[in-house]
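Explain this one:

_____
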Amino acid sequence: MTVAALTLFAVYLVVGFGVRTVVQVRRTGDSGWRGISGRPGTREWWAGAAFAAALVAGVLGPVTATFGLDPIDSLTTPLVQIVASGTAAVGITGTFLTQVAMGSSWRIGVDETETETTDLVTDGPFAVVRNPIFSAMAVTGAGLAFMVPNMVALLGLALLLVALQLQVRVVEEAYLRRMHGASYVEYQAAVGRFLPWLGRQRRSLKTGA
C-alpha cells in the first residue's frame, strides 16, 4: 500500500499541478502561479506556507513508512485500505475536473498587486460549493493519509485541512470580495464554502471572512 500511496501522490502532483499548468499556459499564455501571498510572518503568508508544508508532510507519510514507521493498527484493515484508495482516486479526479471547470480564471495564489481581475466562476461545481477544488484536495489528502495511516501522514492531513481553511478564509475570500464586490457577496450568501449549504456568509461588503 505504501507504493500505491506514493504512486497516487505522484499522479496527484502531475495531474493537479503539472498538467493543469500546461493547459493554462496553452490557453492563456500564463501559468496561473501567483505564489504565497503576503509578507513573511503575516496571516496570508502563513496560509500559503502551511499549504506547502502540508504537501511535504503528505509525501513524507508513505516515505517514512518505507523506512519502518509503523501505521496505527486499527486503521490498517482491508476495508479502510480499499476505501482510502478509492477516496484518493476520486479526490484526484475531482481536483482536476474542478480545476478545468474554473477555466482561464484558475490561479494558484492571488495577485496581491490587484492588477488583474479574473471572472467570478459560479457555475458547474462552483454552483454547489464556492471552493470545490479545495474540497476535492481535502478528499485526496484524506484518502492518501489513510492509505498509509502513520502519525506523519495523519499530521499532514490535519495540517492540510488547517491550511485550506486559512487560504480560503484569510486570502481567497478577502481578495474576491475586493475584486468582485456585491457579486461575490451575493455568491457567498447563496453557496456553501466547502460543503453544500455550510459556510454561507451574511451579505456584507466588509473584507473580513
